[in-house]
């Protein structure tokens, strides 16, 4: 903690630079420090390596459950506090919210209050959702900023595992109506470099891996509103190249270890004598809202293709009908939802309906009211791999330029 109270109720903050080590040592010799939340005695830590802070005695923990604060977390919390203060947001450090027994790192008052959480340590998905729901129940908007050490990237791909994917946010400041632009992003902060980093324009290619654009900004040049409504440049050609690169690898280099869902899908294709690697180019299409399904678009769209080509004789389906299929086990489905508590909600049927609309736009399906049917439904769509790779590029160009139908 960076805040404590004294015997007379006064608060003392270690964020301020007005205290020297000697002054704090003298204060410690004549005063006792208490947790502002539970009023338990706390110790003043004035080490040489870790940032000065207060801590509870091990045998007397606080009623607010928190993780141990690392030097990076303490430093980042102070940076973000000073940054919001300089930008006129009147922040409150470690404000206790008794209704939900939570204490955000930084609380920003206003018509719609904001709770900034700088998360450097691992958090269970259940605990993350509990804290997020706690803030929203009070009308507080939670903004989760991950520690820079949690960022995992390779070229144009970002990996979000465990609770990290639940920190995905949605920006309302979309600079483009482009069909492939994604307003979804995750925010990181690097205290040593005083740098905010956005993993932006997220498009999932697996449960944990996303195509992403890394956008960096020096903290002093950023503004707090950008945590909620950042604006990102977009390159259509770069995205199409990256998406097709991932799709090409899926065709030519199947993973050595198959996830349960993909193994199940491959078994269905095998039983129907469908060459799984030669799926049609209209399987595996991108769209901003496909982030709401946990599986790769290549997987759940492959299932829709299988159902629509080997389903009822008339071949007409609604989005709701398709949503009811794909059950792998008693509680598993290829249409499992990705938990995104910080984003606008999309129903599974809405997501599927978007994909069916893309099929109509490509001329691969017909529409009759709310029902859809694949054209030449009984054909497998197989062809030489080199021809499929060309078609993979072509369908993205068509989606980009053809008017909606």
Report on the structure:
This protein has 405 residues and is of the alpha+beta class. The protein contains 9 helices and 17 strands. The chain has helices at residues 21-30, 71-86, 125-137, 236-252, 260-271, 297-310, 319-323, 348-361, 385-401, and strands at residues 3-5, 11-13, 33-34, 41-45, 53-56, 92-93, 106-108, 114-119, 141-147, 152-154, 157-159, 169-170, 184-190, 195-204, 209-218, 365-368, 371-374. The strands form 4 sheets. Strands 6, 7, 8, 9, 10, 11, 12, 13, 14 and 15 form a 10-stranded mixed sheet that branches. A 3-stranded antiparallel sheet has the order 3-4-5, with no helix packed on it. α4 (236-252) packs antiparallel against α9. It starts with a strand and ends with a helix. Residues 377-381 have low confidence and may be disordered.
List the helices and strands and how they pair.
Blueprint: E1 3-5, E2 11-13, H1 21-30, E3 33-34, E4 41-45, E5 53-56, H2 71-86, E6 92-93, E7 106-108, E8 114-119, H3 125-137, E9 141-147, E10 152-154, E11 157-159, E12 169-170, E13 184-190, E14 195-204, E15 209-218, H4 236-252, H5 260-271, H6 297-310, H7 319-323, H8 348-361, E16 365-368, E17 371-374, H9 385-401
Parallel strand pairs: 8-9, 9-13
Antiparallel strand pairs: 1-2, 3-4, 4-5, 6-7, 7-8, 10-11, 11-15, 12-13, 13-14, 14-15, 16-17
Helix pairs in contact: 4-9, 5-6
């Amino acid at each position: 903690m960076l805040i404590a109270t004294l015997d007379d109720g006064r608060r003392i903050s270690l964020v301020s630079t007005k205290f020297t080590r000697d002054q704090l040592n003298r204060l410690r010799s004549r005063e006792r420090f208490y947790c502002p939340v539970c009023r338990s005695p706390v110790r003043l830590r004035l080490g040489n390596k870790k940032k000065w802070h207060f801590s509870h005695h091990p045998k007397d923990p606080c009623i607010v459950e928190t993780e141990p604060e690392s030097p990076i977390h303490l430093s980042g919390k102070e940076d973000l506090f000073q940054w919001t203060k300089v930008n006129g947001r009147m922040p409150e450090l470690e404000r206790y919210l008794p209704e939900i027994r939570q204490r955000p790192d930084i609380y920003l008052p206003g018509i719609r209050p904001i709770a900034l959480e700088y998360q450097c340590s691992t958090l269970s998905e259940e605990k993350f959702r509990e804290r997020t729901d706690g803030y929203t129940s009070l009308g507080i908007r939670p903004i989760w900023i991950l520690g820079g050490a949690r960022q995992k990237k390779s070229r144009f791909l970002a990996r979000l595992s465990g609770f990290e994917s639940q920190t995905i946010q949605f920006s309302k400041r979309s600079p483009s109506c482009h069909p492939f632009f994604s307003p979804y992003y995750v925010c990181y902060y690097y205290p040593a470099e005083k740098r905010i980093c956005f993993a932006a324009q997220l498009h999932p290619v697996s449960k944990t891996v996303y195509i992403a654009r890394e956008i960096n900004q020096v903290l002093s040049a950023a503004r707090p509103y950008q945590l909620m409504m950042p604006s990102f440049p977009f390159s259509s050609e770069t995205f199409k190249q990256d998406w097709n690169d991932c799709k090409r690898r899926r065709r030519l280099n199947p993973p050595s270890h198959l996830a349960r869902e993909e193994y199940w899908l491959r078994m269905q294709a095998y039983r129907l004598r469908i060459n799984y690697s030669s799926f049609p180019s209209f399987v595996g299409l991108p769209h901003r809202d496909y982030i709401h399904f946990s599986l790769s678009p290549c997987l759940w769209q492959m299932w829709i293709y299988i159902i629509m080509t080997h389903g009822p004789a008339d071949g007409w389906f609604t989005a709701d009908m398709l949503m009811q299929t794909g059950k792998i086990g008693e509680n598993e489905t290829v249409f499992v939802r990705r938990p995104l508590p910080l984003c606008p909600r999309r129903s599974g049927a809405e997501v599927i309906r978007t994909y069916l609309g893309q099929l109509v736009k490509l001329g691969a399906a017909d529409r009759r009211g709310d029902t859809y049917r694949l054209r030449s439904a009984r054909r497998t769509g197989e062809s030489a791999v080199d021809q499929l790779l060309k078609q993979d590029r072509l369908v993205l160009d068509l989606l980009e330029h053809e008017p909606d139908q």
